[in-house]
Amino acid sequence: MADKTGRCMCGAVSFVATDMAGNFSRCHCKMCQRWASGPYDGVQVESTKLSFGEGDNISVFRSSHFAERANCKICGSAVFWRLTSGPYVGKTSVALGLLDDTDGMMMTSELFVDLKNSTSFLPDDRQQMTSEDVAKIVADF
Ligand SMILES: [Zn+2]
Ligand SMILES: [Zn+2]
Cβ(82)–Cβ(67) under 8 Å? Predict the structure, then answer.
């Protein structure tokens, strides 16, 4: 458990999470793929221990009869999803990538593993570019 801060890509949505889980889960369901362009990595926190910064910049979408998903109204970053019915109401799954510091966090569960396919695995012969490699390319843009 830890206190974590985070924000969306553009910064319009920021948050502080208290007693956040130190691990994350990966969901391979098709809904998450469409939402996050791949598996969704989420970190659980009690909803009452998640507070957002100033501004009304979160758009909440009811994605099914039992859950809702939230995005930044400005940049579209996936921010969280949470159940709206059932025994886990009261917990929020915050998008891992929004956290300022994810070092040390480990994946401890995967959901919908039957939906994993070739896109879920990393071929050994894939091209790999560092931040510096990419910076050299975009320097001329
Ligand atoms: Zn944003
Ligand atoms: Zn999912």
Answer: yes
Extract the tokens encoding 96.
């891992």
Say how many Å lie between the CA of residue 55 and the centre of ligand 1: 11
pLDDT digits (tens, 9 = 90+) for 77-86: 999 999 999 9
Task: For domain 2-117, give the CATH number.
Answer: 2.170.150.70
Q: What's the CA dihedral at 51, 6, 40, 62 to 10 degrees?
A: 30
Q: 113: Cβ–Cβ under 8 A, 6 or more apart, which residues?
A: 28
pLDDT single digits (tens) 37-78: 999 999 999 999 999 999 899 999 999 999 999 999 999 999
Which chain residues have CB less than 5 Å from ligand 2, an ion? 27, 29, 32
From the CA of 64, which ligand is nearest? 2
